[in-house]
């Protein structure tokens, strides 16, 4: 196996068996504290035999503090180790009456040469969250559904999942549209007590707001947060237990890869999901491996993906990320400024990638950028660092976007600017829609593939 295990086993064979201690840390789901009277257990196991139960090598059990995380340690005998075997640690939290509340649902390898201290990410067991009406007046966790009026379609079906940790998932379907129009988003929520209003901050340019009419009923407010004076149905009805919806959307977050497992923390919500090793995952792993400064370091990434339930190693199925298309890695990026989304218009968008090629400002030249100015003309200005480009744009439906070329300067551009300019003109002509993940704007073609990736820049 690794050098560490080899040395330990050689010592054991020589009759020098001894006790060692594995130290790690357990973490509760984002925003969730352990309940009073709970017990935490961490178990060290030999998981080498696929067709046989894991062999326990050590265990630690204690009453954890009522916090989001805590350290643990497990004593074990080095004589029990075999250099040909694999080892892992798992954790669980049980309630005062013995009911299983939280478990680890991914393999956490340990005792490998150079490995960091293990971190056990605990997830809630299905049915463990008992709906409670909080001070905000909502019974959570819960799902809220309903179909709202639509000016140019048959109705907008809503599926809103709310959790007590102030995160949410939302799927909206514009019924009767051809092709179908579906918009998914994740984010965080808060309640304005002065208005009894639920405010959703996600990928939408403006927060969505709802009047809390009862613990299980919401009514849509307008974009200014005011009551909609209408007899039409603007209500969502809540149901418990929570019935989560699958999502298909662009995501920006921190990806980590360690011990043959990847995780993705979504910037907008702070929630972490295991990453399935399918789809375009190899491209994500390859880019991560080339850019990471140290093993296991988190890096900001943008992907087009799906959040779907997948079988877990232990406990209930867990929602996982399936990467449909890898977009980009941002080695210097963090989630700090990406937690709140930005607006399409009147934002300085730095052009980061065109057709997968990275753009950088050339010496003495202007930075490649795009600026869409709202208003009556819907004008845009852009450059890749040579000629100034301009024209108009139109927005239709929820995220439709088309560009019309207008006047531009006609300087002869040196390489690579000449190629970039030609590629950018092609991107503008092929753009049919847009999407924003955190602070990244993606210009998409008819198939939803990213033609260009742009990064929001905030000017002093």
Automatic annotation (TrEMBL):
The record's listing under Gene3D superfamilies reads: 2.40.128.270, 2.40.128.640, 2.40.50.540
Q: Which residues form the NlpE C-terminal OB domain?
A: 250-336
Report the leader peptide range: 1-19
Q: Return any one Pfam family short name.
A: YscW
Please give the InterPro entries that the UniProt record associates with this protein.
Cu-R_lipoprotein_NlpE, DUF306_Meta_HslJ, HslJ-like_sf, Lipoprotein_YbaY-like, NlpE_C, NlpE_C_sf, Pilotin
Swiss-Prot/TrEMBL keywords:
Signal
Which residue ranges does the record assign to the DUF306 domain? 343-453
This protein's name: META domain-containing protein
Origin organism of this chain?
Answer: Meridianimarinicoccus marinus
């Amino acid at each position: 196996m690794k050098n560490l295990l080899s040395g330990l086993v050689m010592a054991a064979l020589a009759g020098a068996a001894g006790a060692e201690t594995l130290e790690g840390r357990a973490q509760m789901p984002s925003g969730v504290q352990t309940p009073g009277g709970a017990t935490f257990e961490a178990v060290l196991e030999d998981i080498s035999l696929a067709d046989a139960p894991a062999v326990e090598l050590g265990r630690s059990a204690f009453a954890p503090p009522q916090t989001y995380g805590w350290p643990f340690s497990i004593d074990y005998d080095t004589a029990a180790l075999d250099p040909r075997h694999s080892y892992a640690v798992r954790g669980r939290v049980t309630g005062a009456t013995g009911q299983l509340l939280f478990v680890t649902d991914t393999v956490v390898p340990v005792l490998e040469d150079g490995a960091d201290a293990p971190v056990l990410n605990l997830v809630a067991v299905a049915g463990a969250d008992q709906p409670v009406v909080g001070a905000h007046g909502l019974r959570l966790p819960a799902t809220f559904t309903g179909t709202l009026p639509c000016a140019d379609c048959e109705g907008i079906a809503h599926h809103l999942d709310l959790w007590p940790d102030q995160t949410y998932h939302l799927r909206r379907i514009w019924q009767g549209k051809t092709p179908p129009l579906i918009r998914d988003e994740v984010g965080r929520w808060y309640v304005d007590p002065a208005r009894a209003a639920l405010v959703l901050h996600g990928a939408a340019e403006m927060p969505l707001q709802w009047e809390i009419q009862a613990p299980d009923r919401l009514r849509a407010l307008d974009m200014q947060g005011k009551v909609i004076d209408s007899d039409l149905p603007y209500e969502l009805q809540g149901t418990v237990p929570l019935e989560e919806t699958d999502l298909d959307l662009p995501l920006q977050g921190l990806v980590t890869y360690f011990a043959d497992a990847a995780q993705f923390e979504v910037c907008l919500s702070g929630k972490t999901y295991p990453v399935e090793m399918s789809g375009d995952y190899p491209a994500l792993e390859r880019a991560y491996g080339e850019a990471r400064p140290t093993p296991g370091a988190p890096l900001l990434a943008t992907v087009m993906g799906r959040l779907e339930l997948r079988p877990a190693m232990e406990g209930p199925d867990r929602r996982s990320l399936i990467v449909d298309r890898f977009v980009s890695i941002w080695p210097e990026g963090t989630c700090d400024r990406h937690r709140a989304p930005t607006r399409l218009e009147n934002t300085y968008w730095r052009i980061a990638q065109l057709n997968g090629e990275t753009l950088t400002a050339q010496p003495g030249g202007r930075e490649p950028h795009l600026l869409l100015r709202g208003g009556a003309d819907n004008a845009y200005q852009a450059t890749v660092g040579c000629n100034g480009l301009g024209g108009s744009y139109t927005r239709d439906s929820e995220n439709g976007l088309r560009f019309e070329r207008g006047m531009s300067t006609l300087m002869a551009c040196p390489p690579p600017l000449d190629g970039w300019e030609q590629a950018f003109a092609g991107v503008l002509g092929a753009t049919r829609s847009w999407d924003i993940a955190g602070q990244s704007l993606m210009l998409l073609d008819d198939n939803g593939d990213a033609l260009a990736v742009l990064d929001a820049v905030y000017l002093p």
